[in-house]
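Section 5: illustrative case.
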């Protein structure tokens, strides 16, 4: 009798151990994959772990992540935002145009912010008020924005800023208390968004709107207002990324933000895979996703691969992320407890 009980206990322990291992592999699959990517690039390039290269990854992160936060907020509202790249491009062109026209730098930044806010308000109106499909609405604004970028720059000619204003240089190349300004801006953005989404009543209501419209309306939450706010705040995030990007390249270049847009979308979707709460988009998951995309781009550059292989690799990463998401959903659905 006792031997039968012992065997039952041992079987239960084996099942528990194998389940814990399976949980670890499924829930930690993205982190495990990232570690594998880092090890691969470290073996392929001896300069991968040099501080100047790590600094380059972090600085790229400071441009991609704000745009990714914009996409993440749209995902929280169960939508999608395809305009971060357009917003970044128009913001950069606004800054470059203002500087070349001799406008006060503070006023130029203010006008650039107004451009970003205007895009956010248009997205908010089309989606929250006019009730258009988020994909159709934002891709329409993307095409309109692309046309404006090209027309303002006479067919797509960059507006170079050489020499660029010292105030503009300070945004990307300056530092505060020994911390590079772009990294400091990113840290502040991350903390503010985290506190807003996870710790404030407004953030919890936004999540509630995305999870169940009917339940939110029954609770008295103005769903359309929160949906509109998600796109407005997302555009402001992309605006900050556009200002940092303009400071980096010291010019206003049409369509320059589109290379960051796809990274931003991939990073935002990666946050849903890493979430422990029913695939919820989240701030730190988005930050990690942007780190993955920046690391892949940096590693391929060190390997000397052509730019089109970088796009191939990013597409492959996003595809693998989607497959992992499907496998994770199936695994969690197969569990009884």
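Designed sequence:
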């Amino acid at each position: 009798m006792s031997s039968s009980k012992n065997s039952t206990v041992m079987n239960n322990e084996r099942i528990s151990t194998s389940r814990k291992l399976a949980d670890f592999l499924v829930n930690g699959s993205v982190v495990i994959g990232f570690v594998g990517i880092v090890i691969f690039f470290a073996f392929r390039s001896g300069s991968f772990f040099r501080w100047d290269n790590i600094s380059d990854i972090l600085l790229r992160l400071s441009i991609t992540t704000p745009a990714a936060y914009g996409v993440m907020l749209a995902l929280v509202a169960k939508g999608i935002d395809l305009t971060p790249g357009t917003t970044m491009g128009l913001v950069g062109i606004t800054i470059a145009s203002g500087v070349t026209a001799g406008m006060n730098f503070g006023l130029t930044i203010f006008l650039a912010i107004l451009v970003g806010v205007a895009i956010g308000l248009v997205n908010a109106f089309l989606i929250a008020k006019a009730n258009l499909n988020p994909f159709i609405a934002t891709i329409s604004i993307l095409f309109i924005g692309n046309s404006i970028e090209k027309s303002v720059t006479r067919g797509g000619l960059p507006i170079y800023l050489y020499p660029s204003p010292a105030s503009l240089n300070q945004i990307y190349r300056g530092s505060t208390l020994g911390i590079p300004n772009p990294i400091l801006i990113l840290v502040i953005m991350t903390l503010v968004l985290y506190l807003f989404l996870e710790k404030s009543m407004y953030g919890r209501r936004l999540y509630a709107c995305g999870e169940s419209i009917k339940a939110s309306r029954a609770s008295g939450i103005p769903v359309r207002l929160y949906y509109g706010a998600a796109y407005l705040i997302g555009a402001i995030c992309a605006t900050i990324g556009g200002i940092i990007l303009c400071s980096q390249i010291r010019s206003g270049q049409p369509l320059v933000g589109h290379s960051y847009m796809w990274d931003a979308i991939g990073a935002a979707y990666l946050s849903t895979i890493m979430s422990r709460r029913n695939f919820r988009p989240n701030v730190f998951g988005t930050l990690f996703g942007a780190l993955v995309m920046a690391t892949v781009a940096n590693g391929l550059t060190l390997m000397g691969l052509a730019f089109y292989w970088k796009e191939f690799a990013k597409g492959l990463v996003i595809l693998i992320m989607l497959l992992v998401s499907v496998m994770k959903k199936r695994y969690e659905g197969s569990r009884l407890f």
